[in-house]
Amino acid sequence: MFVYINIMVRISNLELIKLLRENSRISFVDIAKHFEVSETAVRKRIKKLEEEDVIKKYTVEVDPKKIGLNIDSLIGIDTKPESYISTLEKLSEMEEVITLCSSSGDHMILMECWFENSRELTKFVKRLEAMEEITKICPAIIIEKIR
Prior knowledge:
Layout: H1 13-22, H2 28-35, H3 39-51, E1 71-79, H4 84-92, E2 97-102, E3 109-115, H5 118-129, E4 134-141
Antiparallel strand pairs: 1-3, 1-4, 2-3
Helix pairs in contact: 2-3
């Protein structure tokens, strides 16, 4: 007598996401080989993660120094509470701002910004200081990204 056993091969969402974060251009075939599943299973899982907004977009990691932006900085910002949302909106429109985060902890807002040199960073900080709604600015230059 033959007994059919339905074994559902599980692809870990977390492992799949780690793989895509390492190389978002990896092919479905290579992912399937990695997990020892069919390409169709990979396609379905990725499509589901995209539909559920777990995977929001595919992007690249850039070395700003290679494009002439030698200063990579993190800037902590505090604002007047009543101006918080409008400040986020203004900051999000600034070309220098690469990443903008609402945060808890030492600062209300954290930004990653790229500049050609420290003089450009100083000019940017002065622009921020001119914004009445900003109460504190704490820039730091990233020496090395470890991971």
